[in-house]
């Protein structure tokens, strides 16, 4: 659909810059896309193939009313504005309802126009998909350069879905406006013109949208959600039961619960956090599904939580009935103020300000060890520059290669972005990011992408840095690695990182459940990964077999001196055995390995087998990516693949468990080894002075009364939570810092190129 005839006053020469004010009024008689004969419609505006606006979702309504305004900057009126309407389906691909387009050349300048657009589906051109009502106002402008810069920064989509807010507010005079730019925009400069009535002239006001971009990334609060249980859910399986799990969504943030098999009253007791960007709150969409192996999961029901109706700094117990289904969910929801997350220029440094540094040190001093246990520490990351990056863009007749790099800094579920430096393989960002540390065993991930206007961002390199390995105040050049973190790629990135934390809080947090990431890559079957996990499992089993063979050799007297010593030790231990000797023996093992390390006799071996397998896996991933382009998506959704992926993951978990125990005693992470020494020392003293029956009695009373004392307590195993912080051999390899190539050294470059 186009609207009206061409405007005779439209300038045919230089189109200049225009501002299009669009009011999305309502829809009428939209096509039904859901089973209940209704839809959950929302609208997208696209200009030049780029999304410039997305409306809110109106649930279960074929005649929705939006009344939303968008201000769109345009530099070419000959590009039509496309309007697309979709039906929102949580957890599935949204259904297309219909589309239309608005011919901007048909609009009269400086005149409010009501527009009626009929929606069409290209696959069913004869079907009526409904009607959309708009009000539009087109006004001229003369800031073409600013618009072109904005157009360069239009929508960037990456595979990791680093979404920002879709709109940026600003104030001119006494009026608040909202300018819509793509949800993944970066650095932009836009000029607004205001009329000075007293002087009769136009004043040009410059507004740096880089500041707005920075603010749009920063969350204003934390939504803590605890999924307790479900009650009286609908039976979806032939046995009269279900295998339920729950999906949560707040904006671009998603969370999926574990699957509880064969029950209509599941107990989840899972806790997670969402970032709250909107000051007025937001809507958490919740859907409940029944897991079916080998076929599509069954929909059980849905519900929503309107956060704007909940008071802050207070825990709310909610019993949410499920719509389009049976039963209800029990949740705890708490809204708290934002954590200390900031983005600033290099000139603004919190730790260099003596007063601010003292406040931060005071906040994490030993005197504050029991105040706000979840606030473990403070992290400051200076992203300075990168050098010799990979060229991702090839332009011009001479194949001149450049990249448009930007940087993504991640700490668990906290993600912040730098601006984009265009056409540069040696970009300088000079930005400072600060984060609150919830877990000192988290890994800081810094990824460099190449912004691509027409498709998803290209990966350039990545580094993963465990917080406990950071040297404060030291500017280091980190060699960029590939996606799997198994080998180097081209380029280095210069970072300066500072970590301040409370050791007591960090130790307590180590014994609590680990935070799960919202966005993780979907598991897929890999022959090489399956083989790798099998070999890792084999190594753990062979270590146990070797120990058993060693003990058997003592019984066989293969070495008489060794067997005699073992026999005397056996008599002594059995005759004088006390329970405290078990943690004492583990203490001695830790102490012995620590002595070997400090004396230079490190018995830790570099596992070249794992490294070789990781490199082979990377090559196979590249082949799989190419093969996946040739094969359809549905061909990979077989039940046998899901079974193989499950076996593959089980092997990974078992192998990782054994490797983590080994790495605890090998002092791979000294903080955790020292924590183990403290814990084992305490256990040794307790078991020495307190009879075992009293310890068992206290343990039993605690277990039996835990549900009474705290009905919504989340079950956890402190030992398993501790081991989850110890890296496996694969993680040690991934976090291993590569040595910088001498060609990247600035001093070497100066010598080689004195000019």
Automatic annotation (TrEMBL):
Keyword Transcription tagged: no
Transmembrane intervals: 565-595, 671-699
Gene Ontology terms: cellular component: endoplasmic reticulum membrane; recycling endosome; synaptic vesicle membrane
Domain of life: Eukaryota
Record Gene3D superfamilies: C2 domain
CDD domains: C2A_MCTP_PRT, C2B_MCTP_PRT, C2C_MCTP_PRT
Subcellular location: Cytoplasmic vesicle, Secretory vesicle, Synaptic vesicle membrane; Endoplasmic reticulum membrane; Recycling endosome
GO-annotated biological processes: regulation of neurotransmitter secretion
PROSITE patterns referenced in this protein's UniProt entry, alphabetically: C2
GO molecular function per UniProt: calcium ion binding
Membrane topology value: Multi-pass membrane protein
Main location: membrane
InterPro entries in the record: C2_dom (IPR000008), C2_domain_sf (IPR035892), MCTP_C (IPR013583)
PANTHER family: C2 DOMAIN-CONTAINING PROTEIN, DYSFERLIN-RELATED
Family: Belongs to the MCTP family.
Protein name: Multiple C2 and transmembrane domain-containing protein 1
């Amino acid at each position: 659909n186009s609207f009206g005839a061409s405007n005779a006053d439209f300038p045919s020469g230089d189109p200049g810059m225009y501002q299009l004010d669009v009011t999305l009024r309502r829809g009428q008689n939209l096509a039904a896309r859901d089973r209940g004969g209704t839809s959950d419609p929302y609208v997208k505006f696209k200009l030049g193939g780029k999304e410039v606006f997305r409306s809110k979702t109106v649930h279960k309504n074929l005649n929705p009313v939006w009344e939303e305004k968008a201000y769109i900057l345009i530099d070419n009126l000959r590009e039509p504005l496309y309007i697309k309407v979709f039906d929102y389906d949580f957890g599935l691909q949204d259904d297309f309802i219909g589309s239309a387009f608005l011919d901007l050349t048909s609009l009269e300048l400086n005149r409010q126009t009501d527009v009626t657009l009929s929606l069409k589906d290209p696959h069913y051109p004869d079907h009526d998909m409904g009607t959309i009502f708009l009000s539009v106002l087109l006004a001229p402008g003369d800031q073409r350069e600013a618009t072109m810069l904005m157009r360069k920064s239009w929508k960037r989509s990456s595979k990791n879905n680093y979404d920002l807010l879709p709109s940026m507010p600003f104030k001119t005079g006494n009026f608040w406006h909202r300018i819509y730019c793509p949800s993944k925009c970066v650095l932009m400069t836009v000029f607004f013109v205001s009329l000075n009535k007293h002087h009769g002239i136009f004043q040009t006001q410059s507004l740096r949208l880089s500041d707005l971009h920075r603010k749009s990334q920063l969350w204003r609060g934390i939504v803590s959600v605890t999924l307790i249980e479900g009650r009286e859910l609908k039976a979806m399986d032939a046995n009269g039961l279900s295998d339920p799990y729950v999906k949560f969504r707040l904006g671009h943030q998603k969370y999926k619960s574990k699957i509880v098999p064969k029950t209509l009253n599941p107990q989840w007791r899972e806790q997670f956090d969402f970032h709250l960007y909107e000051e007025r709150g937001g809507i958490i969409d919740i859907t409940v599904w029944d897991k079916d192996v080998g076929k599509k999961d069954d929909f059980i029901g849905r519900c929503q939580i309107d956060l704007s109706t909940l008071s802050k700094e207070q825990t709310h117990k909610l019993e949410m009935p499920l719509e389009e289904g049976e039963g209800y969910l029990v949740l705890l929801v708490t809204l708290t103020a934002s954590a200390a997350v900031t983005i600033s220029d290099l000139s603004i440094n919190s730790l260099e300000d003596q007063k601010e540094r003292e406040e931060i040190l005071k906040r994490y001093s030993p005197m504050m060890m029991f105040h706000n246990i979840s606030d473990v520490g403070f992290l400051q990351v200076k992203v300075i520059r990168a050098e010799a990056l990979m060229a991702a863009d090839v332009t011009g007749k001479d194949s001149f290669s450049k990249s448009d790099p930007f940087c993504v800094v991640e700490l668990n579920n906290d993600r912040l972005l730098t601006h984009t430096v265009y056409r540069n393989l040696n970009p300088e960002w000079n930005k400072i990011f600060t984060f609150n540390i919830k877990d000192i065993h988290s890994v800081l991930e810094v990824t460099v992408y190449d912004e691509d206007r027409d498709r998803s961002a290209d990966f350039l390199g990545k580094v993963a840095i465990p917080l406990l390995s950071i040297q404060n105040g030291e500017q280091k050049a980190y060699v960029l690695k590939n996606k799997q973190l198994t080998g180097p790629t081209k380029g280095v990135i210069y970072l300066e990182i500072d970590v301040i934390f409370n050791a007591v809080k960090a130790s307590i947090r180590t014994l609590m459940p680990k935070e799960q990431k919202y966005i993780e890559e979907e598991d897929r079957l890999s022959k090489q990964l399956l083989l790798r996990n099998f070999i890792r499992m084999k190594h753990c089993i062979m270590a146990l077999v070797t120990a058993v063979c060693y003990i058997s050799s003592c019984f066989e007297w293969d070495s008489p001196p060794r067997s005699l010593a073992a026999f005397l030790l056996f008599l002594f231990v059995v005759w004088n055995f006390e329970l405290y000797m078990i943690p004492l023996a583990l203490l001695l093992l830790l102490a012995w390995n620590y002595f070997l390390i400090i004396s230079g006799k490190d018995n830790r071996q570099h596992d070249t087998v794992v490294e070789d397998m990781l490199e082979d896996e990377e090559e196979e991933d590249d082949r799989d990516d190419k093969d996946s382009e040739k094969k359809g998506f549905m061909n990979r959704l077989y039940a046998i693949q899901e079974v193989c992926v499950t076996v593959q993951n089980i092997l990974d978990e078992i192998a990782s468990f054994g490797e983590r125990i080994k790495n605890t005693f090998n002092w791979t992470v000294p903080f955790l080894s020292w924590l183990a020494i403290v814990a084992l020392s305490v256990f040794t003293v307790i078991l020495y002075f307190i009879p075992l029956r009293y310890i068992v009695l206290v343990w039993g009373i605690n277990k039996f009364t835990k549900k009474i004392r705290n009905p919504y307590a989340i079950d956890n195993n402190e030992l398993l939570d501790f081991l989850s912080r110890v890296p496996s051999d694969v993680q040690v390899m991934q976090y291993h810092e590569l040595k910088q190539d001498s060609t990247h050294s600035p001093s070497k470059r100066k010598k080689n190129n004195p000019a």
